Amino acid sequence: MPWPDFGWYLSWCSVFILHHLNFYVGVSCMRDYMARSLTIECRGFKVEAELLDQERPNTCEAIWRALPFEGKAEVWKEEVYFEIPVKIPRENPTPRTRAGDVSYWPEGQGFCIFFGRSQPITPVNTFAQIKSRVDNFRHVRPGDRIIVRKV
C-alpha cells in the first residue's frame, strides 16, 4: 500500500510554523528595540528628544556615546547651539529644518536646537526630534548652560 499524499498538510504546517516563528521573532526584536531618547535642560526647563536612529544611525550613535555633555548656549535667529566634544562627518545632511529638530553641524561641531523658522547656514545631520513644545528655547540667552543627558 503506498503512502498517502501528505504534501498539502506539510505545506500548511510549514506556513503555520514559519508565520508564528516570524511573529515571535518580530515581537522579540521589537521588544529589544526601544527608541532612544535624550533630555535637554536649560533655564529651569527640560525637554525630551527621540533619536532618529533609522535616518542617521552613525550620528545618533556618536552623540549617544558622548552623553552626558554640556555647553554654553549661543543663539542665532530661532536656533540655540553650542559646541560639543564630538567630531562626526556628514550623514544624509539636510539644508532644511523645522521647529523641534535637533541637529549636528559638522563644520562647527555644533549641537543645534531649532525652535522656529531658522534654517542652518550649511547642511546639518538632523538626528533627533523634540516631542514637546519648543517655545521655552525663545528665552535662552547666550552663555546659558545647557545639559544633555540620556533618558
Number of domains: 2
Spatial sequence of strands, sheet with the most strands: 3-9-1-2-8-6-7-5-4
Taken from the alpha-carbon principal axes, the silhouette is: globular
Number of beta strands? 9
Q: Which spans of ≥5 residues are poorly predicted at pLDDT below 50? A: 23-32
The major pleated sheet works out as:
9 strands, antiparallel
- Portion in beta strands: 25-35%
Q: For the terminal residues, how far apart are their CA atoms?
A: 68 Å
CATH topology of the largest domain: Cyclophilin
Based on CA atoms alone, the radius of gyration comes out at 23 Å
CATH class descriptor of the largest domain: Mainly Beta
Helix and strand element order: HEEHEEEEEEE
Q: Averaging pLDDT over every residue, what do you get?
A: 87
Number of helices: 2
Instruction: Give the helix/strand class.
Output: alpha+beta
Approximately how much helix is present in the residues? 10-25%
**Corresponding CATH architecture of the largest domain:** Beta Barrel
Commentary on this structure:
- By secondary structure, the chain is an alpha+beta fold.
- The protein folds into 2 domains: 1-33, no CATH class; 37-150, Cyclophilin.
- Helices cover 24% and strands 31% of the residues.
- The chain has 2 helices and 9 strands, in the order H-E-E-H-E-E-E-E-E-E-E.
- The chain has a 9-stranded antiparallel β-sheet.
- The longest helix has 26 residues, at 7-32.
- The protein is globular, with a radius of gyration of 23 Å.
- The termini are far apart.
- Residues 23-32 have low confidence and may be disordered.
